[in-house]
Amino acid sequence: MNARLVDLVIANGILVTPDGMTPGAVAIDGGRIVATGSDAAMPPARRVIDAGGRHVIPGAIDVHVHIREPGFSHKETWASATAAAAIGGVTTVLDMPNTNPPTATAQAVAQKIALASPQALIDFGVYGYIGEDNIAELAPMARAGAAAFKLYLGSDNPLVPCPNDGAVFDAMAEIARFGRRVTVHAENTGILRWREAQIRAAGRDDLQAHLDQHADIATVEAVSRIALFSEWTGCPVHIAHESCRHSLPLIADAKRRGVDLTAETCPHYLFLSMDDAQRAGGNPLRVKPPVREAGHAGPLFEALASGLIDMISTDHAPHLPDEKRQASIWRTAPGFPGVETSMRLMLTQVAAGAITLPDYVRMACEAPARAFGLYPRKGSLLPGTDADIVLVDMNAAGIIRGADLHSIGNVTPFEGMATMGMAVMTLVRGRVVAEAGRIVADHGWGRALSAPA
Ligand SMILES: [Zn+2]
Description:
Blueprint: E1 6-17, E2 20-29, E3 32-37, E4 45-50, E5 55-58, E6 60-65, H1 78-87, E7 90-95, H2 106-116, E8 123-129, H3 138-144, E9 146-152, H4 165-178, E10 182-185, H5 189-201, H6 207-213, H7 216-233, E11 237-239, H8 248-256, E12 261-265, H9 267-271, H10 297-306, E13 311-312, H11 321-324, H12 342-351, H13 357-371, E14 389-399, E15 418-428, E16 431-435, E17 438-439
Parallel strand pairs: 1-4, 1-5, 6-7, 7-8, 8-9, 9-10, 10-11, 11-12, 12-13
Antiparallel strand pairs: 1-2, 2-3, 5-14, 14-15, 15-16, 16-17
Bound molecules: zinc ion.
C-alpha cells in the first residue's frame, strides 16, 4: 500500500468506464488521478468524500457550445455558461467561434482565452472559424490555442459567412497538415437560401416553414460532400448536431471507407419532434438544423447507442426570452441552452434501460475526448490523468425548469420534463466546483486546454 498522503479520496463509489462498473474508490493528488481500486487499497488522504454507493464517472465533455462572449454577454457569459455546465456534470467545453468579433484570427483566439480564463469554472477549448479570407491564419490560430475548427455550411449569419467549396477544400487541406478536427454545420447553403426565399414569398412564418426550409436533403447532401472532402484531403471532420436519419447510411459508409469522420447528435433531436412543438412552446423550438418530424429520433438514438454516432453534445445556444418568443419564426432566435440538462436527460434513458451507464460514459466522455485529441487526459478515470470527475445519483428525480437553470438565456424546450438521475458533485482537476446544484469554487479555476500544464 502507498502510505504517502494524498489530497483526496472519493470512497465507496461505483466506478464507471465504457468497459463496465466496479465498486471502488479514486485517489487524487495534485489535480490528477493517482489510483483507482478498492477502498482498502487507497492511500491515506487529507480529505475523504464518501460517494455513498453512488456512481463515479469522468466529467462529460461537450464539444459544441456557444458561450456568446465576446459580443453577446446579454445572452450568456463565460461565468454563467461554465456554472451551468459544472452543475450539469460537464467538465470540459469547446466554444464555437460565432461571437463578435468572430474567432477568426490568432489574435481573436488569444483574446477569447484571455476573456474566458478569469470567468471559467471548468476547462475549455476554443474553436477557430474557417472563412474564405483566413486560410493563411488557420495555422497561427492553432498555435494560439484553437483546439478545433468550425466550418459553417448553410449559415446565414453575417459574422461567420459560409466559405465556397473551393475555399473549404483548401482550408481542409491546410488543416490536415497540422492536424485539428473540423466540426461542420452540414447543410447545403443553396437549398436553404432558395427555399427561404420561396417560403417567405408565400407569406409563411411558422415553425413548419422553418422545417420546410431545412429539408432533409440539405443536410444529407452536405454530410456527403464533407465526407468526400475529408477523404480527399485527409482532414479529420466531425458532423455537428446530426438531426436526420437519412444521413446515417452516409456516415456509416464514410466510416467503412476509412474516412476520419466522427458525428454527434443532441438531446433535442433524440427526445423531441415536431409533434412536441406545442409542448416546447412553439417557436422557441426553433433550432438549426431543425427538430424534424417524428421518425427521426428513434434511428438517431439507435445510432448513438451503437456508436455509429460517436457522441452526445448539446449545441448549447442561449437567447433571452424576448429573442425566443417572437410571433414570426424568421425573427425567433435559433437554439437554447443544453449543458445543464443533457446529462439528466441521458441518465433518464439509463434509468429506463434504453442504454447503460457505461454506454453513456462512452458517448459523453470517452468518445469526445478521443475525437478531439484530449484522451486520456480528459474523459477517462485512468491514473495520471486530470481528475475531472462527476458523482451521479441515479435515484435523483427532478423536473426541468428553465427558471432553475444557470444560463442567462434560460428558455428550454425541455420545460416540465421529468428526469431520473443527475450529477450531484463535479470536480475539475481534483477540485469540487459544483455540489448539489450550487457552485462551490471560484471563477477562474477553469483553464484553456492549450494552457501549459
Ligand atoms: Zn451550434
